[in-house]
Amino acid sequence: MIVKTIATTAFVIASIAAFAQGDQLLRGDREPIRVVVDGQRVHFGDMQPREINGRVMVPLRGVFEKMGAQVEWDGPSQTVTATKEGSKVQITIGQVLAGVNGDTLRLDVPAKLIDGVTMVPLRFITEALGGYVGWDQVGREVDITSSRDYHIPHKEVPPPTAPPVVVTPPPVVTPPPTVIDRRPLRIVKTYDEIKADSVIPLVLETRLSSRDSKPGDSFTARLDTRGDHRYMNLPAGTQVYGTVTYVKRQHRRTPGVIELRFDHMMLPSGRSLPINGRLYPLDDTSVTRSRDGDLIASNEQRNNTMVFVAYDNHQSWIVSLPTRRPLRDSEIPNLLAQSLDAGQRSRLAHDVDLREGTPMGLRLYASLVIPRDDR
After folding, report:
1. Is pLDDT larger for residue 328 or for residue 61?
2. pLDDT band for position 181 (50/70/90)?
3. Cα–Cα nearest to 352, from 251, 261, 263, 268
4. Which residues contact 299 (CB under 8 A, 6 or more apart)?
5. How far apart are CA 70 and CA 287, in angstroms?
6. How far apart are CA 303 and CA 359, in angstroms?
7. Do residues 142 and 131 lie in contact, with contact meaning Cβ atoms separated by under 8 Å?
8. Which of 47, 131, 190, 297 is most buried, most CB within 10 Å of its CB?
9. What SS3 state is found at 54?
10. What is the chain's Cα-based Rg?
């Protein structure tokens, strides 16, 4: 299986800017916010998540019940109570102080009633219930992992400052000589970090095809360490779990297309790590290598959508399409025309067939933290 990439010309870059600007004018506002819990997207009714004062607000139920929490609403006091595995969070409509396991914490944005729907701050309640929240600014997607391994402590509300007390100074006493220990401090790190824009090489473990696969199908890929025990502090045997988000079968001269989303990473110890990243090619024009042989993304552009596109029989390309909104069948021919020349498009009238062992890259859009106890 051969995977190639397409280098976009200066003309395509200019087309991308014009396309994105026109798209935004047609919509009239920003893209809706998507919420994913443990790899499963949460579907809302008429009231969708919205961003208020820099914080994502969501309807009361849905997200937290999907995390396994029990949510209760007290109408007279207008108070929301969410409980999960011994954790208890209480928020009152319009109040900036919230109760978390008996402590009082301050909210950046209070809960609100909007068109009769109770909207609560997503990150505050999720982390108070032991979950981990990741935010993809480009795709406007909130990724939640409900595992307690990622409980993030909240800042405590400092007590009010007491007025200074005037104290009569004691008599001056000459202290004994001070012995200073000048040995250097030993700082122990409990985690390793893989920085954003690093590229993690993967090998597909699940066969995918634009003829048979459907949006929502799951897949797995394993870490490709090239025979070594580790890659960028990730141990051999690490797996990545993902979901097929878009499939288009080959039709006449339009090739098959498959779009993938990476949901989370599983270490050999069984620990699950949330990841914020997207599909990326591994050819020499797309990546550079550090002194240690680690792969770094060469292209600074993050707004494009990366997809597998059929190229001749039993071959596929990873092609960068000039869009970041969800793909639609009617747009594919125009997007491919902006990304490929006529000679390339003439060899694309096939279905995508991704067999086991297909190489691909995972480009991180945010740092990946790896606990040292999993080394």
Report:
1. 328
2. low
3. 251
4. 286, 320
5. 46
6. 23
7. no
8. 131
9. coil
10. 26
Q: In this structure, which amino acid lies at residue 199? A: V
Q: How many helices and strands in the chain, by DSSP H and E?
A: 5, 31
Q: Is residue 349 a contact partner of residue 36, using CB atoms and an 8 Å limit?
A: no
Strand partners, 79: 74, 92
pLDDT bucket at 259, cuts 50 / 70 / 90:
very high
| Number of neighbouring beta carbons within 10 Å of residue 267 | 18
| Secondary structure class of 25 (helix, strand, coil) | helix
Q: Which residues make beta-bridge pairs with 363? A: 199, 278
- Residue 213: C-alpha distances to residues 56, 309, 358 (Å): 33, 14, 16
How far is the first Cα of the chain from the last one, in angstroms, to the nearest whole number? 32
Helix H, strand E, coil C: the string for 199-264 is EEEEEECCCEECCCCCCCCEEEEEECCCCCCEECCEECCCEEEEEEEEEECCECCECCEEEEEEEE
84's CB contacts (< 8 A; 6+ apart) are 64, 67, 68, 69, 70, 129, 130
20: CB partners within 8 A, 6+ apart: 303, 322, 323, 324
**Is 191 in a helix, a strand, or coil?**
strand
Does 263 score more than 50 pLDDT? yes
Q: Which residue type is seen at 281?
A: P
Helix (H) or strand (E) holding 84: strand 79-84
> 10 Å Cβ neighbour count for 282?
18
Whether 65 shows a pLDDT value over 60: the answer reads: yes
CA-to-CA separations, 173 to 122, 169, 170, 176, in angstroms, rounded: 57, 11, 9, 9
Closest CA to 125 of 160, 149, 101: 101
Assess whether pLDDT exceeds 80 at residue 196: yes
The answer for 22, left when phi > 0, alpha when psi is -120 to 50, beta otherwise, is: alpha
Residue pair 69/82 in contact (Cβ under 8 Å)? The answer is: yes
DSSP reduced 3-state for 11: helix
Quickly count: other Cβ atoms within 10 Å of residue 143's Cβ. 24
- Give the angle 92-94-97 at the CA atoms, nearest 5°: 60
β-pairing, 34-37 with 141-145? parallel
